[in-house]
Inverse folding.
DNA sequence: TGCTAGATTGACCTTAACGTCAACGTTTAA
DNA sequence: TTAAACGTTGACGTTAAGGTCAATCTAGCA
């Protein structure tokens, strides 16, 4: 059976679960993207699922093409409810921006995917011809 | 009416059409990713649609997350028919690899897209409540 | 013929996002 | 209680992917 997932963990465990290195996590902390839930008197950083989720969100935003700095300026809006109508409108604006970037990127990947499939089919055809032609 | 697109062009034009800078094109050339169709006696590089297509393919592979070096080692297989059955099988292997990377990336974007939509809906709800609650 | 915009090479510079290493402290299972 | 595994800070290194600048040359239109 698998090891139970602890409710609280140190940097190494968090790193393993998010598939990054501890160095990356510290780096994100320096940039203000992610801080440990708690800091023991030993100096050790302790994290929870919250931070894991945040780390994964950072990954998504990176995949979207944002720099860590850009991520730093928007990541909170994924984890704190906006205050006031203005705040909500601002958040909406940014989320909609991310949405349209995501869609654009997805569509371009879909195009590539179609091209790849055609390409593959073509080479498969060539291969079949070659194999039936000269056995 | 729009300017007609020339059958042959210099680096600036190619750059504009591919939405990159001339520097980028020269950089790709240094790395062996893209060479001009022709080189005038003046030293000017001249390109055609072929190179534009290639440049766009490089962009797709970049979006997929490949480094320029990795791209350099596979780009040709998008533009030259493989020789021999072995060659074809090899190409198929690589194309299938790209396909599964593309699909994985697309699926992760789709997840993010769904999350974004939920998030947007949530904030919209909050906003509506706030506006009807305290006008 | 003479401008102006664009091209050439070469060299050095920049930036983001970590990697690596040293010197040292902490945890924890044996 | 000690050894192995893990964590800490600090500092420096690396790599990819171009940016920038200078000095010089070319194209092509008025």
């Amino acid at each position: 059976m698998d090891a139970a997932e602890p409710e609280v963990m140190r940097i190494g465990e968090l790193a393993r679960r998010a598939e990054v290195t501890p160095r990356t996590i510290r780096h994100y902390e320096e940039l203000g993207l992610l801080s440990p839930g708690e800091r023991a008197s030993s100096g050790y950083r302790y994290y929870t699922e919250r931070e894991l989720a945040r780390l994964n969100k950072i990954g998504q935003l990176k995949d979207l093409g944002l720099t860590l700095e850009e991520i730093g300026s928007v990541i909170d809006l994924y984890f704190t409810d906006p205050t006031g109508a203005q705040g909500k409108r601002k958040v909406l604006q940014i989320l909609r921006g991310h949405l349209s970037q995501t869609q654009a990127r997805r569509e371009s990947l879909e195009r590539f995917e179609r091209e790849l499939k055609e390409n593959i089919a073509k080479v498969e055809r060539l291969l079949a011809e070659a194999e039936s032609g000269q056995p």
Q: What stands out?
A: The interface with chain B takes residues 60, 63-64, 78, 81-82, 84-85, 88-89, 91-92, 95-96, 98-99, 102-103, 105-106, 108-113, 115-117, 119-120, 123-124, 126-127, 130-131 of chain A (CB under 8 Å). Chain A has a mean pLDDT of 93. The radius of gyration of chain A is 22 Å. The first helix of chain A runs from residue 11 to 18.
